[in-house]
Amino acid sequence: MASHIVGYPRMGPKRELKFALESFWDGKSSAEDLKKVAADLRSSIWKQMADAGIKHIPSNTFSYYDQVLDTTAMLGAVPPRYNWNGGEIGFDIYFSMARGNASVPAMEMTKWFDTNYHFIVPELGPDVKFSYASHKAVDEYKEAKALGVDTVPVLIGPVSYLLLSKPAKGVEKTFPLLSLLGKILPIYKEVVSELKAAGASWIQFDEPTLVMDLDSHKLQTFTDAYAELESSLSGLNVLIETYFADVPSEAYKTLTALKGVSAYGFDLVRGANTLDLIKGGFPKGKYLFAGVVDGRNIWANDLAASFGTLDSLEGIVGKDKLVVSTSCSLLHTAVDLVNETKLDKEIKSWLAFAAQKVVEVNALAKAFFSSNAAAQASRKSSPRVTNEAVQKAAAALKGSDHRRATNVSTRLDAQQKNLNLPILPTTTIGSFPQTIELRRVRREYKAKKISEDEYVMAIKEEISKVVKLQEDLDIDVLVHGEPERNDMVEYFGEQLSGFAFTVNGWVQSYGSRCVKPPIIYGDVSRPKPMTVFWSSTAQSMTARPMKGMLTGPVTILNWSFVRNDQPRYETCYQIALAIKDEVEDLEKAGINVIQIDEAALREGLPLRKSEQAYYLEWAVHSFRITNCGVKDTTQIHTHMCYSNFNDIIHSIIDMDADVITIENSRSDEKLLSVFREGVKYGAGIGPGVYDIHSPRIPSTEEIADRINKMLAVLETNILWVNPDCGLKTRKYSEVKPALKNMVAAAKLLRTQLASAK
């Protein structure tokens, strides 16, 4: 059988692209330096796949920032604020769109389907003048060819591109984006004809929106688009690639009937139901690209099981028409296991990163693998994976829905008697700036260059500075600033059993920003308290309430590589029980306000509507498990980041937290519209009053104006005043004046409200 890779990570095995980009942005290196690093990465990836025996090697999946932005550049769809004057788009315009510049803001960024990758959203409207303005796809095809590698150029398909766009500012929200199809197809035709002229024999169109719930009008647009492209595509083998979920049956009919298309790619890891559709009928003489190697996780493939799947497909489409592939681009997994020298040997034998997955695809295609059954068996039977006590405790959860004994308004009254806060109480989200000095202390402690006593002293000193600063600013509910934490998930994972960590297991989140997800390989439990020492130390430094700070179970789950040998909700319930132990220990230690962050609750929402209610039910239940045992007087906060809450607001209410703080300032106050539309919310709520992702310092008036907008739709007695998110990435020179203005705005409004009474 032939073999194929949908796409490959761009950052490099040791984040070479990240460092090259940041050096270029900082003006420390030239555009030529950056291009050289990029060319070296591309050629090593192509060579690696060719050496591994892969037949269909992708090109144009490399990007300096994001593949959707590359398509925007290809189509010349540059928003007018960037003052582009035509011609080939260079780094200046490209990076201005991605990151903004001194005078204009960046384009919006949002999550790529249900992954943790973010793409730059095209801004379109009836007046956009499309033109062929970036020849990257053709240039990269030629570049690979010059190296002796004949690749499959990859383009984001025209229909998915439009469906992933949004109407530009000033364009009617209801503007039909698909009406622009006729304007972008001529450019796609130009690209295709240049690729043909350069010698390409295959071309791949990624149309992942086909896995969404699309109406018949949208499906018809796919039919129209490929009918229009048919004559340009003649003489080429055309692959339409889908990924991340099952293809619904109507979409399957549309897809397999597209004109001029010779091959279809399916995600058979997350889309097992697609197998039934294929068995029910597959177009004769067409190629099936079978995505059996998981592009979104780090587990070694169960080669015997995959081979069984391939065997049954071979009976339907024939050996010469079956191609072994990855379930999606390998962009969403770590790069190369070879760089993990510190990882435990047994655990390492269970893993495969992108480079290893390329080898797995080839092994399945050639059917000459020595079965990896030994590693699979060791993973099933390893005592480090299974913990009977945890399994029992999680199984026992099934009987209850774990709600606190009294309703939220009764609890808020009890808490207010205890905490005695003013109206419009002020707080922050948790972290304070992580200075160079602080990072150095943590690094030296990790490298055993300073003793534990010296480390504890340094961290205590930092906490005391942060406490004093908040008291000087007259903030009502304090935080300890999290100086001891590297990352909100890793910090907890390192103290829970069932987690493993990599040194270079980085995955691109957006632009040059990468995350290093922990690996959950076994049953999760909490051997001993994780945060109690630091929180009680901080509380002992002040008479004001000090928030305990925890990351919630759903966020820990969604930001990790999760074991695939049991349902995700079982792992989530186990994490919830571990966090519950911590919450109760904090309460015993005299911490009366405990924040359990669920930044990533919405991120795990399945793509298909039919699966969403079930996810939300167990995710919200997991959150309630963590705090169902505390006293009425203990105030439970939660925090959520960038999200479209509007569609899950009822689940958020069902979390039954006492206070929720929400990122709001960047979401154009979409959030407040929910309450305007009459959703009744009785718990405390703190929509962020300023954007911490920007170095700008908002004025007192601006913040007061924001709070007034909130008071128009929310009751005075439930509103809290706080920034959007944690302050970890900001400088003290930005944080101090911004918080000073925030407190001043709250006091100004308290005075106004009192005199209005």
Brief characterization of the structure:
With 757 residues, this protein is α/β, with parallel strands linked by helices. Helix content is 42%, strand content 12%. The strands form six sheets. Strands 1-12-11-10-9-8-6-2 form an eight-stranded parallel beta sheet. A five-stranded parallel beta sheet has the order 17-19-20-21-22.
Strand content: 5-15%
* Shape, principal axes of CA atoms: globular
| Contiguous uncertain segments of 5+ residues | none
What is the count of helical runs?
A: 27
- Rg is 27 Å
Major beta sheet summary = 8 strands, parallel
Helix content: 40-55%
Structural classification: alpha/beta
The end-to-end span amounts to: 79 Å
Mean pLDDT: 94
Strands of the biggest beta sheet: in what spatial order?
A: 1-12-11-10-9-8-6-2
What is the number of strand segments?
22
Provide a descriptive summary of the structure in words:
By secondary structure, the chain is of the alpha/beta class. The chain is 42% helix and 12% strand. It contains 27 helices and 22 strands. The strands form six sheets. An eight-stranded parallel sheet has the order 1-12-11-10-9-8-6-2. Strand 10, helix 10 and strand 11 form a beta-alpha-beta unit. Helix 7 runs parallel beside helix 8 (216-233), helix 15 (388-395) packs across helix 22 (568-588) and helix 17 (436-446) runs antiparallel to helix 18. The mean pLDDT is 94.
Highlighted features:
single chain, 757 residues, alpha/beta, eight-stranded parallel sheet, five-stranded parallel sheet, 27 helices, 12% strand, globular, transferase, UROD/MetE-like_sf, zinc ion binding
